[in-house]
Design a protein that fits this description.
alpha/beta; three-stranded antiparallel sheet; 193 residues; 22% strand; 10 strands; 6 helices
Length: 193
Amino acid sequence: FLKNGKLVVAHIFPYFKGHRTLETLYLEPLAQRIAKNNGHVYAGYNSQMILMIDIKTNGDETYQVLKQLLEKYRGMLTHYENGKVVYGAVTIVLSGHKPYGLIENAPSRLAFIDEDLRKIRGDSVNHNVFAMASCKYSQLLKWDGKDTVSNSERQKLLTYVAMAHKIGAKVRLWAAPEKKEVWDELLSCGVDL
C-alpha cells in the first residue's frame, strides 16, 4: 500500500502499521544477505530470487514511489536495459494493480509484471515485460488430485506452460489443492512455482 509516501506491507489497508515498509522488511534485509553471501541471496545458490510485490493501491502512483526506492538497490536487482534483461540476485515482479503502461514503455527499469497465465501468447512482442505468468488453479483446472488428471486438462496446462516459457516467463499456479499428487503433476507439466 502507498500510504503517506511510504510503501507499507500489509494484507489489508494499514491503519496503524506504517512502520512495516517494503524497504525495512524486504529490501534492506535482502541487500544485507547478498552482501554477506558474495552477491547471492543464499550461499551457493546462483539463481535469482523472485520478490513479488502485490500492489494494493493505484498502480501508476505506487509504482512511481517504488521505482525511486528500487534505484537505491539497483546493484542487486534484475533490470531491463537497452533491450536486454540483465539478471541480478533479486527479480522484482509486480502483481495486483499493475502499471502496465509505465513498465511497457520504460527503456530502463527494475521491475517486471506477473501476467495472467490465460492471457499469455507465445508470440508476445513485449516478452521482456513479463517475468511470470500466474493463475488461480481453479480458473484453469478442475482436477482435485483424485484418480488421474484428464488428458484434456493436462494438454491445456501443457499448452499454457509452453506459451509462457516461450517468452521467458515462469509459470505459477496458486491455491492448488494441497496434495502431493497435484504438485507432482504440476511440476511434471513444467509449472515453475
